[in-house]
Design brief:
Layout (H helix, E strand, L loop, with lengths): L2 E4 L2 E4 L4 E7 L6 E8 L6 E6 L5 E3 L7 E6 L4 E6 L8 E9 L12 E2 L3 E6 L1
Parallel strand pairs: 2-11
Antiparallel strand pairs: 1-3, 3-8, 4-5, 4-9, 5-6, 7-8, 9-10, 9-11
């Protein structure tokens, strides 16, 4: 599966941004996820969604982010609201066949190249 992120950029704190991950394959049987990384921190999970559509969010984004999958368009999105400077990071999408490795796990089968999000106060 090839994954390509888009939608990153610069944003002001308090605004919203929607990231997209376009896939080369039908992803209805995959667990999909969003991760982020900064030069100072290890890659961390932001949100994941399993094949039936159950979502898990990191505490840092819970309540202000929504992960969604559109199987007919081979597309996953992450809407982030009320952006904060600490959301600044490179955002990666990931996919894993059939089951979810977990939001705290990094052993996912497929990764995109990332899209940069920079939030200024």
């Amino acid at each position: 599966v090839l994954l390509e992120e888009s939608g990153g950029g610069s944003a002001q704190a308090g605004t919203s941004l929607t990231l997209s991950c376009r896939t080369s394959n039908y992803i209805g049987n995959y667990c999909m996820g969003w991760f982020r990384q900064t030069p100072e921190k290890e890659r961390e999970g932001v949100a994941i969604i399993d094949a039936p559509g159950r979502a898990t969010y990191a505490d840092s984004v819970k309540g202000r982010s929504v992960i969604a999958v559109n199987n007919s368009k081979n597309l996953m999105t992450l809407q982030m609201n009320n952006l904060q400077p600490e959301d600044t990071a490179m955002y990666y999408c990931a996919a894993h066949w059939a089951f979810c490795p977990g939001i705290s796990q990094l052993k996912w089968s497929f990764w995109g190249q990332g899209t940069q999000v920079t939030v200024s106060s």
